[in-house]
Design brief:
alpha/beta
Length: 267
């Protein structure tokens, strides 16, 4: 675990005050290599795109063994720290989640996203505490995700207060970061940043302010989520439809030209 701990230390440093870690999420070894080649300082996975690449819907339908195998392939080729979206932890109990997270650490993962979803926030608190108690030889950056905005858990008039309340609970439990997807209002982002003494993570959406404004607001991490995967599959779909419907290759070759030489990269 020594190497894992050393890599985790580097990953923690990427969240230092005044920095902004930008993560164009990957879903397999090839997309992880794309992110790394493009200049990503760390690799994060998208739970949705990773599940789709294996023929499963998002939402922990992908078997844990397949998830772990996919993550192992990403870590094998990565030269930068790897953090994974572990959804709700692929287990029913906090201790089960902790065991699963330790299995991720054993293959070299240094961080996870762990979400509250529609469950009471106390459950995520218990999971965070269980992971921290179990991780004696590993260092795992827990990015606690609250779905207050993404899942519309409460009314619009109390979303900000509820996100902050949950953020404080997760910070007290030992979380290392707070992820608030679908929070796109700059004033609200500033309030969360000011209220929670953790690196705050924002998800890129059409309504999300530009990177420079997020950094000015104190955000220390930005994730692209499933969108790079959607973009890749969207480009493939356009090329396939043009080939099949029109008998033309323009769309295929316009996208293929940007693909790196994977034989060389993996050789």
């Amino acid at each position: 675990m020594q190497r894992q701990r050393e890599t985790a230390e580097k990953f923690h440093a990427l969240h230092a005050r005044g920095r902004l870690l930008i993560l164009p999420n990957a879903w397999d070894a090839a997309s992880a290599k794309l992110a790394e080649t493009a200049g990503a300082e760390a690799i994060a996975t998208s739970s949705a795109a990773l599940a789709w690449s294996h023929g499963y819907a998002d939402g922990q339908f992908l078997p844990a063994t397949a998830f772990l195998a996919a993550v192992r392939e990403i870590v094998r080729i990565a030269k930068v720290p790897v953090t994974v979206d572990s959804e709700m932890g692929f287990a029913d109990t906090p201790d089960g989640v902790a065991r699963f997270v330790l299995s991720l650490a054993e293959v070299g993962v240094v961080g996870i996203n762990l979400e509250d979803g529609t469950s009471p926030p106390e459950l995520l608190v218990a999971k965070i505490k269980a992971i921290k108690a179990a991780a004696k030889d590993a260092d795992i950056f827990i990015n606690a995700r609250t779905d207050v905005y993404l899942a519309n858990l409460v009314g619009d008039d109390v979303k900000l207060a509820e996100a902050i309340r949950r953020g404080k609970l997760y910070a007290a439990a030992g979380a290392d970061g707070l992820f608030v997807p679908a929070l796109n209002d700059l004033s609200g982002i500033r309030e969360v940043v000011g209220a929670i003494d953790l690196p705050v993570n924002i998800l890129t959406m059409k309504a999300t302010p530009p990177i420079a404004q997020l950094k000015e607001a104190g955000v220390r991490r930005v994730s692209a989520g499933a969108e790079p995967g959607r973009a890749a599959y969207g480009a493939a779909m356009r090329g396939m439809k043009m080939l099949l419907d029109d008998g033309k290759y323009d769309a295929i070759f316009s996208s293929a030209a940007d693909c790196p030489n994977f034989n060389k990269a993996f050789g």
